[in-house]
Amino acid sequence: MENPDNQTNREIKKEKHRNALKWILVLGIVIVLNLFFSVTIRLFYDAPEYETFCPFEKYNAKIIETEEECAALGGRWSEENFRANYPRVTVNIEKDLQRTVYCDAAYSCGREFEDANSLYRRNIFIIMVILGVSSIAAGIFISVSSVSLGLSLGGVLSLIIGSMGYWSDMNDLLRVVVMATALIALIWVGIKKLRD
Asked: At residue 81, does pLDDT exceed 70?
């Protein structure tokens, strides 16, 4: 007959092993779920590329000498030396290098790129929020605690990832709403799922 203490120790070890496997599954679901979201979004929704808006050949092909040439490219002409804030040292250099004006030739196309990129980040934020909330909702209805917790925490991570990408473009009210939503989601996951 087996010693009851040995049987109890084996059961404790089995339970610890089972709990470790559950948490590994939860972590795996959280990571793979968000990688899946990210890869799927990139597959169907391309990010704007700077080179598309400001081709190197068009904006960096030659030195722009006049304000008119600069304006024709959609650039911004500056009468100030673009290195005016740095200490000056007198050296003998060629006349061509003694420029006191500067044309930011890619100014307009750069602004267009920033606008397109901001719109892209906003759309990614919206998509990640929808996917995150859907994952949290799916976690509510699944009875297997490890899978449910993995989906719920994966949804919370999706909310965080989406918010991080758009954070700099958000207004303060939206930031408060996002933070409140994330806090409520975390509290809900803690109460409903970690109680088991």
From this structure: no
Same domain, 100 and 121: no
* Total number of domains in the chain: 2
Q: Are residues 27 and 79 in the same domain?
A: no
For residues 184-191, give the mean pLDDT: 77
In a domain, 55, yes or no: no
Kindly report, residue by residue over 11-29, the tens digit of the pLDDT. 888 888 888 999 999 999 9
Same domain, 140 and 93: no
* pLDDT number for residue 147: 93
3-state SS string for the chain: CCCHHHHHHHHHHHHHHHHHHHHHHHHHHHHHHHHHHHHHHHHHCCCCCHHHHCCHHHHCCCCCCCHHHHHHCCCEEECCCCCCCCCCCCCCCCHHHCCCCEEECCHHHHHHHHHHHHHHHHHHHHHHHHHHHHHHHHHHHCCCHHHHHHHHHHHHHHHHHHHHHHHHHCCHHHHHHHHHHHHHHHHHHHHHHCCC
